[in-house]
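Request: Mind sharing a record?
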Amino acid sequence: MFAPLRFDGKVVLITGAGGGLGREYALAFAERGAFVVVNDLGGDIKGGGKSSTAADKVVAEIKAKGGTAVANYDSVENGEKLVQTALDTFGRIGIVPCHTSVRENLINRVHLRGSFLVTRAAWDHMKKQKFGRIIMTSSAAGIYGNFGQANYSTAKLGLLGFSNTLAIEGQKYNIYCNTIAPTAGSRLTQTVMAQDLLDFFKVEYVSPLVLWLCHEQCEENGSLFEVGGGWIAKLRWERTQGAILRHQNQSMSPEAVRDHWDKICNFQNATKPASVHGDPHVTSNYAVASTELGIPVSTAVEFSYSNMQTILYALGVGMSTKEPDHLKFLYEGDSEFSCLPTFGVIPSQSVLSLKHLTFLMSLTQLLHGEHYLELYKPLPTSGKLTSRGMIADVLDKGSGMVVLVDAHTYNGQELVCYNQFTLFLVGMGGFGKKTSDKAKVAPCCRQAPLCLFQAALYRLSGDFNPLHIDPSFAALGGYKTPILHGLCSFGFAARHVLKHYANNDVSKFKSIKVRFVKPVLPGQTLQTEMWKEGSRIHLQCRVGNAILLQKERFWVDWDTRGLQSDLVFAEIGHRIKDFGPELVRKVNAVFQWEITQGGRTAAQWTINLKSGTGSLQKGPYSGKPDVTFTLSDEDFMKVVQGKLDPQKAFFAGKLKAKGNIMLSQKLETILKDYAKF
C-alpha cells in the first residue's frame, strides 16, 4: 500500500471556495494538513452582491475539524490582495486551484482575467521557492462549445491556453499547471440539473483529482482532464496526416484544396501533437516542401570578420602560446599568420536561422548529429564572406528526425567552403522517409585538457545556444551541466590531425566529416586517436573510455606533388567496399580512366562493377573495358565538383571517351556525391 498523500505545511489559495467545488477543495486540502486561504466574494450566481458569510462558514468548518484556514473576501480581480492574505498569515504561497462561480456579464472579467490576476500575483513567490501547483478550471462548453454559451465557452477555452503556457514557462521552476473540466453539482448547476444528477455528480468526486495534481509527487504538467461522477479522463489533440498542396512552379488553388479534402480530413494514422514545436509531420512537411521548392533556410548572410575573430576561434578550440607553432594562428604579426581551416564552420552557421529552427522545434530538442566541412582554398584571415543555406533533405530515424542543411560560403563570387549540418530533432520521428542520397559520406594519439570556461570562450565565435552556458536551460535538455559545443570538440580534433599529419600547413587541409556521439563537458580531457589508411586519416575522440567523436573519414592532402584525382578514386574504392554488390547490380560495367598531367598519362584506374562484389584497381584493365575515359587531373576534378559539365568537356575535346559511351550515364551512381577531400 502507498502512503496517503499529505500537504503538511503547504499553503493553498482557493478562489470561489465558499461553496460547491471550491468548498470541497478547501475541506479536502485542510483535512490533509494544508493551510488554506478560503476566498469568496459572497456574491450570487449572477455576480451581484457581496457577503463574508460563505467564506467564514467554510473557515469555521475547517477549524472545527482541527484544520487551519483564513478567509478572504476580495474579488479575484484584486489578485494581489488574495495572495497577500496568504503571505501575511502563513508567509508563503504554493498551490492555487483557480475556481470561479460567476456567470453572465462578469464572465470574462472573473473567469479569465481573474484567474490571470491571481496567478500573476502568486507566480514570483512560487519561482523563488522552486515549487508551485496551479489548477485552471475549464468546462466542456469551453472544449466543445455549447448552445447559448458563447461568452462562457470563450473564457473557459482561454483558460486552457493560459494554463498550457504557464506549464511551459513554469516547468524549470518546478511549477506545474494543469486544467480540469469538471461536471459537478454547484451553485451554478443546481437550477438546471435534476436532483438525481446532482447526487450523481457530487463535488467530492472531483477533488481527489485536484489534490493529486497539486501534490509534490505528481509530475503531470500541461494536461487537460475531464472529471465527474467518479470518472476521470485525459484529453489530447489529434491531427490528420494532411496533404501538401504547394509544389514548385504550381500555384496553390481552392480547387486543389477541394480535390484533396478527403485526405486533409482523414484521421487514419493521425498524430497527437503536444506542443507548438512538437509534431514531426508538420516539421517534415515544412522541410520537404522547402527542399522541393528550393526555399532557403535563411537569406544570404554576410559575415564580416577581422583578425580578432580568427584568433578568438583558435583560442576557443584550444590553441595556446605554450606551443611555438600555434603562434601562426594566434598572432597577426606572424609571417605565416593563418586561419584555422575549421574556422569555415563559423560564417556558415548563420544560415541556421533561429526563426526557422524555433518554428520547427524547441532548441532543447535540437542536437548537432554530424558535420561535414570542405575547403576549396585556405580561408582569408579577415574579410567579408557570404553564406547561403538550403535544406537538402529530411530523414526519419525513429526516435527523431534528421535534417540535412547545406551551406555554401563565398568570398565575392568564389566558393571558398561548403558545410553540411546534420541536425537531429529529438522525438520527431515516425513520418516514414528512411534514406537519402544527399548526405555526405563520410594509431597515434593526442590529448587536450578542456578548461572550465571552454564553452564560454567558444560561444564568443557566434554559437549562442544557451544549452552551452545556462545551467537551467541545460537542465531542460536533460543535462546536469551546460555541455561543450560539438563544433568546439570538432575544432580540437581537426587541429590535432592538422598538427600531426600536416605540420599545421593549412594548404594541405581539404575536408572533414565527423559524427557527434556523446556530449563533452568543459573541464574534461579530450583525447584524439588517429591513424592513416591509404590516402585518408581516420580519427575518433574519447573522454576516458567513452567515444565522443565517432571514427569518420578525415581527408588530408599532405603530398602536394600527387594527383588530386587520387583522393576521389580512394573514396570510390571505399564506396565499392561498402556498397559493391548493389553497385554491380545497378551498373554492370567496367570503366577505365586515364588521368593526364602536363599532356602525359599520369595514372590509370579501373572500376570493375561487372563481376563479383566490384573492385577498384590502379592500373589498366586486364581485358577490354566497356568504356575508357581520358582527361586531365585538373579537368577531372572540375567535372566531379560540378564546375565543368561532362558534355561540354566532351565536345570541347577535354574529355575523350571510347567504347559504349551510353554507359557513362551510370557513373552518376558513383559520382553524384563525389569524394569529398
Observations:
- The first strand starts at residue 11 and ends at 14.
- The chain has a mean pLDDT of 82.
- The radius of gyration is 33 Å.
- DSSP finds 22 helices and 23 strands in the chain.
